[in-house]
Amino acid sequence: MVVRETFDIVFIIESLPKILKALPVTLYFTGFALLFGWPLGLLAAWGKISGPKWLKSLLTVGTDIIRGIPIVVLLYIVYFGLPNLASGIFGVNISRWPKPVFIVIALVIELMTNASEMFRSAYTSIEKGQLEAAHALGYTKWQRFIHVIFPQGVYVILPNLGSAVLSMVQATALVYTLGIFDILGKARQLDVNASRTQTFEMYFICALIYWALAVGITQIFKALERVFGKGFKTMATKKDVAA
Asked: Residues 207, 210, 213, CA angle at the centre, nearest 5°?
């Protein structure tokens, strides 16, 4: 048995560039999950708010089910179960699809479910009087969305959207279980090649990379909050003057 003696900083410096080469894989899965998950989440939120009763019930039950399943379990359900479902119901063979496709589908389902609740909460936070006033002024549904719902809803939901992005980045750490070499998968591969004598250093490197990503994402969303928050400060000032 190999006994560790010291914290190997040299090993960290040498291994960091190798693990960073897998960063595009993490960003790839995160990007595609956001690209499809948020629009689908917005549609699901619309269904919960304005859809027929049966659709509201279906979406609510689906949300409760998905939110109760750990993401790693959802990955396996999609990867192993979706081909069987497609073959049994539609007679379509998708078992030869690349693994990344199934991973993206699982991440999109996860994000869509959570995003639908975030968008729904943002919509319900808007004062009904503003929507009624816009309707009285003859605004179409699209104009109400652009001029009333979107500006206020985005500001309200931005902190939650930032958290959702962080959650997606962290969720990609599980794709190594399906044989994909993301940041964590690459670190584990290097750890095995190093006879597992620098396991702590490997995970320390991963922690540094994920922490750096979290800081960057947090700063981006704080900047967006400042941009969209200017309009609210202006509105608040006008209300105070009118009072």
From this structure: 150
Q: Which of 175, 193, 194, 200 is nearest to 185 (CA)?
A: 175
Q: CA 163, CA 225: separation in Å to the nearest integer?
A: 13
Give the other-Cβ count within 10 Å of 80's Cβ: 12
Cα 68 from chain centre? 16
State both tokens at 130.
């503003």
Main-chain dihedrals φ then ψ at residue 107, nearest 5 degrees:
-65, -40
Longest distance between any two alpha carbons in the chain, whole Å: 78
Query: How far is Cα 25 from Cα 217, in angstroms, rounded to an integer?
Result: 17
Question: Distance between CA atoms of 187 and 19, rounded to whole angstroms?
Answer: 6
Q: Collect contacts of 19-22 with beta carbons under 8 A, ≥24 apart.
A: 19/183, 19/186, 19/187, 19/190, 19/202, 19/205, 19/206, 19/209, 20/209, 21/186, 22/181, 22/182, 22/183, 22/185, 22/186
In this structure, what token pair is assigned to residue 133?
A: 């006033």
User: How far is Cα 220 from Cα 24, in angstroms, rounded to an integer?
Assistant: 19
Q: Give exposure, 114-127, as e/b (b: 16+ Cβ within 10 Å).
A: bbbbbbbebbeebe
Q: What is the pLDDT of residues 198-241, one digit of tens each?
A: 788 888 999 999 999 999 999 999 998 888 776 555 444 444 43
Tokens of 82: 């979706």
4 confidence band (pLDDT: 50, 70, 90): low
